[in-house]
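Collaborator request, handled under Task 6.
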Amino acid sequence: MHNVQLDWITPDAQRVIARHARVSAKNPDKDEFTKLLNYCIRHGHWSVFEQASASFEIITSRAISAQIMRHKSFNFQETSQRYCDPLDVLEEEEEVCWDFELRRQDVKNRQNSTADLDIEIAAKFKQRISDTYWEIKKLYKDMIAADVAKECARNILPMCAPTKIYMTGSIRSFLHYVGLRASIETQAEHRNIAKQIATSLENCIPVIAQAVKIAAENDRSLRGWIQL
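Structure tokens returned to the collaborator:
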């Protein structure tokens, strides 16, 4: 259910960034920019990467969207549970949203989980989760049908309910977001979203992405780029 699509990116983003980086040069429109962009990243001249932006459409759960929206350098728009029925608007995702992975708690690191939960235990709870989810869905739909306001009925929706957000920010912000959230310290579902964003950026701004991967070898804040 955790799907990412590029909505838009500044046209010819790498060339735009390079031109703005040469704002004090006599010829800012030089064709070659690979060396310049590599130099800026290698020496930490991050401000020039604020001169281009991108926006991604992300479909995920309410549990994960809350984590994403903690990143204050971005602007967000999210499906409103006050104005729409998210189980209707996101019907395809809603059908499987309850079927999330169950992992075992890492006893040495409370921020981590491991994919080795006993199969029988997982199967038992999957059934209970399914039963509970469909009961909650029925209750929600009954409340809406009885003319209960969506802003009231939404209180009983679970954290696994689907949502759609638009995440917009500078290339600089996305480079550091991937650096943090594509790393193994991040929850698996959120990490999957960061990796999808990274893949899209690699396609759109390959020179920058490659330079960041090299810089990540010596910069822990970018570590996610070498854990893709």
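The cover message to the collaborator said: "The chain has two domains: 3-62+64-73+162-226, 92-156. The chain has a mean pLDDT of 96. Please let us know whether this matches your experimental observations."
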